[in-house]
Amino acid sequence: MTIKAIITTLDNLPILREQVPILHDDPFIDEIIVVNNGSRDGTREWLDERPDVTAIHKENDGAGPGRNAGLDAAEPYDYVLMLDGGIRPLRGGTEQMLEYLERIPEADVIGVEIPHFETDYNRAWRRWPNPIEITDTYQNLRLSHTAYCLARFQAFDGLRFCEEGPFGEPGWGADDDEMAYQWREAGIVVHVVVDIHPYRRGSGSFRRLWQETGIWPNQYGSVYEQRVVWLQQNWAKYQPGVMWGEPEPERVIRIMADGVEETARRIKAAHEEMRQARFDPPYEYAWQPYHVVVQCAYDNQDFLAWAEPRRLCQHHGDTIVVDGQIVKRTAENEETWTGDFILEIVSGR
Known about the structure:
- Helix 8 (260-279) links the parallel strand 9 and strand 10.
- This protein has helices at residues 13-24, 43-48, 63-74, 93-103, 175-186, 204-213, 223-234, 260-279, 301-307; strands at residues 3-9, 31-37, 54-58, 79-84, 109-112, 137-139, 148-152, 190-193, 253-257, 291-296, 319-322, 325-328, 342-346.
- By secondary structure, the protein is α/β, with parallel strands linked by helices.
- It is built from nine helices and 13 strands.
């Protein structure tokens, strides 16, 4: 039995320095393949000094093409461990995921729940705690979870990540959605284990894309938006055509607030309520957008000045945008976070 590990990385050298030794010490991993997706942080030089790693250096034309390069180089194999560049794998994790797939034949992929990744380095887990029980997992039809998963060979037998249109250019997001739809067509079953908390570093690609395009990677006009629209056009039966900004009336929340501090608190509370309804098990597989409407009781210019630049200032990992700059998210700047919804400002009662 052969297990290959594929890391696709972009400007994540600090975590790559941990990923490789952890996987090198893993007795279940037969080969480590690192796809350097155009890093400029010394990743190439570091990999060139590692004879124990199969390194693939390529230009950054998207996460999917990078993952495909790793999959092509990995064959033949029985299982493949997929890992994104900013995620520190848990010691003992490969063994537990392999044991689960061999015990649960209907599952082709076992992945880790992405919202449960930990962005606090010191709080994150370092070792997989226990065997995976079937009661610890659910089946996901919307996401392939290839950020951190173990997959059987058949999951990628004749299947690759999309490289069409916006998927074949630098950008973030929706690659795992598209692969999930391919897997649904092919009958590949994805199980996801919850309450596992590996460390995930704020994506190096986010900073790069922000610097090179001036667009936060999940804002209007980003490649992510283009990919979502592409999915709506090409996988309409799995992702209906709802464009950015279209409200779903049942999901609109109106918040009456005068002060910035209270408004921020209510926005986050509303977001968590909606996020729980949307993302927690049993999971809604249909695309269900929502947004928050913040109504000022009067024309409060201070509030409007605070709120306007924070539309879609979403966090990813441990980074956020504050006053146009990417910074680490902390308790001190938490009030700037709006979450993954649209903030609409309406003056007047």
